[in-house]
Design goal:
With 524 residues, this protein is of the alpha+beta class. The chain is 51% helix and 16% strand.
């Protein structure tokens, strides 16, 4: 029945240019009536949404543990820890943990000593001095000892056993991700497999074993090379984000730095786990066909004995806006790219919802202003997009514009057009019809997305962990529906200014070589 209602709503929003707030409010109240939140004594928040016509359950578990919770020295730890928690526990991923444990502890001790020795040797290299031969010899001995211990441990390891167990129970989408704000673990299972999930995931939190820590660190280093060093966009974006934020820890990359990943300390990683992977820093969202009382009872059984850490990152600093224009330019063998961003408040601030409308006006769809100007009319850009809430939403963030430039495009010309379009917004040169179409489109997109259990579980847990209340998901749409031309004009004047902008340009380093080749060919 709900799908029929949803289909009718989508038809109305798609073909009727009159925005119907009453329709959305009706759907919103129906959705909210299907949701129940439970807070356990240890601080764990459980959000359940019943969808009787969906025979599967989507499980999303989020921890308030992202890159912003790290000091620079341990940058990348949250992401590394996400990888490590797929390595099994004392009960899963091992043939005999009692025997394996001896090697685990020795590997940890030797690996830590080797890291400290490598850092000591690096200090000599910084001074352009040769390290003492006895240090080099000791480093080789410890390295050989570590490899030997790792080889002996291998005979006990059962790789991906958790994944195999889930596959036997019909899993879909078993995965995880780490952002600046959170770390998330997710899976979908048949509705009658909830206790399988609870047993495995509670064990992952109670009995984790950081197997293959030192080899996985090398995997992370290779991942960084692929995503950053060997990527034009990755390289540019890292420079752009680090420049845009003077105060907030958003300036650090989620994956960590090339200089510190090889030295991420296993004891500090364990400490990060103890502090941030605690029930009072955690939200579980379960969406699908379920009985609330049964679900609550199972979660209570497996998760209520987790101990709270009473540890949360509380920042004393905040970003200061309007500190002057910031620019960075890099050369890289890649098609040219330009990023422009403005500092602004994060959700659930009302102005964040206004920026959502501005983003749609500027970049969403072939009828958006910047697409028409830059792609269709001037033909100097191949693609344009906008990201609100970049790179996170726990603290003030950026609205970012992304341009994939033509090889012969002048970045100055692109900037001029962007400022022209922003000036139109600052003057209130927007029609009510434009805003109505945008509202209809965004609400329709939202209603399409909520047809998926996974999307709902992900979004509900995200709003709960980041903003403190899952209802802010719906409150943000209430705010969005109230946005006026005057709001757009005010926000564009307040934030979209030249003393609040960060601009990053990637210049194709191959162009100079191409020019040389053309000159050489013409002289023959």
């Amino acid at each position: 029945m709900f799908k029929k209602i949803l289909f009718i709503v989508l038809l109305i929003l798609s073909y009727n240019n009159l925005y119907s707030d009453n329709i959305f409010q009706s759907v919103k109240e129906r959705l909210k009536s299907q949701i129940k939140k439970v807070k356990f004594d240890n601080g764990l928040n459980l959000i359940m949404m019943n969808r009787p016509n969906s025979p599967t359950l989507a499980f999303y578990t989020k921890f308030r543990a992202g890159a912003v919770d790290e000091i620079p020295e341990i940058s990348g730890t949250a992401h590394l820890l996400e990888h490590m928690l797929f390595k099994g526990t004392k009960n899963v991923g091992t043939k005999n943990y009692k025997e394996e444990e001896v090697y685990c502890e020795q590997i940890k001790t030797i690996g830590h000593q080797l890291d400290e020795l490598k850092l000591s040797i690096r200090s000599y290299e910084k001074k352009q001095e040769d390290p003492p031969p006895y240090l080099v010899s000791k480093m080789k001995r410890l390295g050989d000892e570590l490899k030997s211990l790792q080889e002996q441990q291998k005979k006990y390891i059962v790789k991906s056993e958790d994944s195999y167990i889930y596959e036997q129970h019909g899993q879909v989408g078993f995965n995880a991700y780490t952002t600046n704000d959170v770390t998330n673990y997710q899976i979908q299972l048949p509705a009658n497999r909830i206790e399988v999930w609870a047993r495995l995931e509670s064990d992952r939190l109670k009995n984790p074993v950081l197997r293959e820590y030192y080899t996985e660190r090398e995997v992370i280093m290779e991942e960084r090379r692929m995503r950053v060093e060997n990527s034009g966009m990755g390289t540019l974006r890292e420079k752009y984000i680090s420049l845009a934020f003077d105060q907030l820890p958003y300036r650090k990359p989620v994956i960590g730095y090339a200089s510190n990943i090889p030295f991420l300390d296993i004891y500090q990683t364990e400490d990060f786990f103890q502090k941030h992977y605690s029930p009072d820093n955690m939200v579980i969202s379960i969406v699908g066909d379920q009985d609330f009382s049964k679900t609550e009872s199972i979660v209570q059984k497996y998760f209520s004995d987790l101990k709270p850490s009473h540890t949360q990152t509380i920042l004393r600093v905040q970003e200061v806006f309007h500190q002057g224009e910031k620019r960075v330019r890099i050369k890289y063998p890649n098609s040219p790219i330009m990023l422009m961003g403005w500092n602004k408040p994060a959700t659930p601030h009302y102005d964040n919802s206004v920026v959502d409308v501005i983003d749609a006006l500027l970049t969403k769809g072939v009828d958006s202003r910047l697409f028409k100007r830059l792609v269709l009319q001037e033909k100097i850009v191949l693609g344009v997009d906008g990201w609100n809430g970049d790179p996170g939403e726990r603290y003030s963030n950026l609205y970012t514009l992304y341009f994939r430039n033509n090889s012969d495009a002048d970045p100055v010309k692109i900037e001029e057009i962007v400022w022209e379009e922003i000036e139109k917004l600052q003057k209130g040169q927007i029609t009510e019809e434009e805003i109505t179409i945008i509202k209809n489109r965004i609400i329709a997109d939202f209603l399409r997305d909520i047809d998926y259990n996974s999307t709902l579980a992900d979004t509900l847990s995200y709003y709960e962990i980041v903003t403190g209340d899952w209802e802010n998901l719906f409150n943000s749409y209430d705010k969005f529906s109230k946005v006026t031309i005057q709001d757009i004009k005010r926000v564009a004047n307040e934030y979209f200014t030249k003393d609040n902008v960060t601009i990053a340009n990637l210049i194709d380093s191959r162009e100079k070589e191409k020019t040389k080749q053309k000159i050489s060919s013409s002289s023959l």
